[in-house]
Structure formats: C-alpha cells, structure tokens
Amino acid sequence: MNRRQILQASALLLLPGVARAQSYPNKPIRYIVPVAAGGGNDMIARVVTQKWSALLGQPFVVENIAGAGGVIASQTTARAAPDGYTLLQAYVATHGTNPATRKVPYDAVKDFTPIGMIGATPNVLAISATLPSKTVAEFIDYAKKNGEKVNYGSAGPGSLTHLTMELFKQETGLGILHVPYKGIAPAINDLLGGQTQAMFPGLAAALPQIRAGKIRALAVTGRERSPQLPDVPTMEQAGFKGFDAMQWYGSAGPANMPADIVKRLNDTQVQVLKDPELREKLEVEAVEPWPMSPAEFGKFIQSEVQRWSALAKARNIQLTD
What we know:
By secondary structure, this protein is an alpha/beta fold. The protein has helices at residues 3-14, 16-23, 40-56, 71-78, 93-101, 136-145, 160-172, 184-193, 203-211, 259-273, 276-282, 294-314, and strands spanning 29-33, 60-64, 86-91, 112-122, 124-128, 151-154, 177-180, 198-199, 215-220, 246-254, 288-289. It has 2 domains: 26-120 and 248-314, D-Maltodextrin-Binding Protein, domain 2 (3-Layer(aba) Sandwich); 124-220, Periplasmic binding protein-like II (D-Maltodextrin-Binding Protein, domain 2), CATH 3.40.190.10. It has 12 helices and 11 strands. It has a 6-stranded mixed β-sheet with strand order 2-1-3-10-4-11, sandwiched between helices. The protein has a 3-stranded antiparallel β-sheet with strand order 8-5-9. α2 (16-23) packs parallel to α10, α3 (40-56) crosses α10 and α5 packs parallel to α12 (294-314). The longest helix has 21 residues, at 294-314.
C-alpha cells in the first residue's frame, strides 16, 4: 500500500459511521421480548440471539417484558437510546394487529427502526373432526346451511386468530359467531370438546391435535404449503387469492438508529437465519426463516398495520381494553 492509499484509508476510518460500525457492539445488547418466558415467541428469541451473539462477539441479554399485549415492551424500546443496545422482538401483535384494533401509546412505524424479519408461521383453518367437511368449500357450504350450530374460537379479541377468521368471514359472507378465549390453549381445548367448531390457530399450536386426528386442517395461510402439512392446500389454492395472514417475528430498535449499525445488525441476522441448526430449531414452532432488508421489513410492517386496520374498520372491531 502506497502513502496515498494509507492516507485515504486513514481518512475513511475517521468517518463517524465507519468507526462506529467497526466498534459496534462493545457491550451486551438488551433484547426485549414482549411476552412471558417459556412460550414460542420467547424460544425464538433465545435461539436466534444465541447464534447472533456469536457473530457479533457480544452477548444478548433477553428480557421478557409481558403485559398489555406487548405495549409495555414496545414503549420501553421506543423510549430507549437509539444506539443499537436496546432491541425488540417485534411481532404480528405489537406491529400489526394491536395498533389496528386498539389505541396504543406508540406508533408502530414512526417510533421504531426496523432491523429485519426473522421468520413466520402460517395459521391453519382447523375444524372439529366431528364435522363432515373435508375441504374449505365443503366447510363454507356446511356453515351456511347450519349457521346456528357453528361458532369459532380465538385466542382473544383482536388477536391474529380472531382477525384471520373475520377476514375469512368477510370474504365468504359467513355469519358464524365469535367466542373469544384468554389464550390459544383454552380455545383449542374447546374446539376439541365441541364447544366451538372452527378456528384459525397458529400452526405450531394446532399441529399435535391435527396429527392425532382430533381436529381437521382444511387449509393454511401463506404463499406456499407448509412442510409440516404438505397435503394441506394453502388458502389461495382453495380459492382465496392473497389470503396470507401469518404469525411473524422480527427485530426492531428505537427510531433514528444510525444506518451503519442497522446494516451491521441486519447483515449478521440474515447470516444467522442461514444456519441449518437454527432452521431446525425454528421448525419446532413451525417457523420458516424469512430474511428481509431493513427497508423491506419496514414496508412489511406498514402493510400489516394498514391491512389489519382496514379489516378492523370494515368489521367494526375497536377494542378499549
């Protein structure tokens, strides 16, 4: 390297972004998960950050901040310094369905810096095994003829399980009754017990009962068939174009994070998502890695808020709790 090249390289290192990117991170990264420890959301955070920390050379400190449907965790992140040392595992509730159905004290788009998508899992149109329907079309026909005998469960008002079925009702004209529960487990239990006849649970939650033949899977959301249920068609294959409601997970930080730090985080996260061992662990929650650039993830969040807000308005779903 000649003298001129040395001077150019030295000048480059003096640029704030270059120097910051080379030194970041130099301390542990706080990674906020907006649910209690022990569930699928938490598991995803822990397996991803374990691999991520190895690439970045600093530990991730996973902090579970449950409550208010992710509002507290989201506010905590939005108010943190935008230096790359506080990140949030944003997901469909915090940055999709909740802002669409409730007044939340944060802006899911303006108050955050998108880092990247981690992955997504489909929802599945599941019905009681006691029903005669074997296809989506047969279920629609049955529900129209037996409307008073058919209702559906959800994990709670405003949840993805609720909104996905309302989307289905909007597209089919069905008038089946909504029965909300406090969580996915009791909702599935009542589907098994015959108190409800249908629902749109996340695939991971429903898979054991589907495989046991206790509930019947008619179709999955998303663009492609699930590797877990290769014989079950997508909603689009069943005749519902663009029906791609997904339970998704990504990472975000406070608004106005430096672009060089965002790039470093995204580059390493994308690298993590290529790891075969990680993919195998994510399969436990039926999550398929879905890497995106920060710009792509930001546009995705905007589209999620817009689509669920439009549905909530059309279906008159506005929650006050």
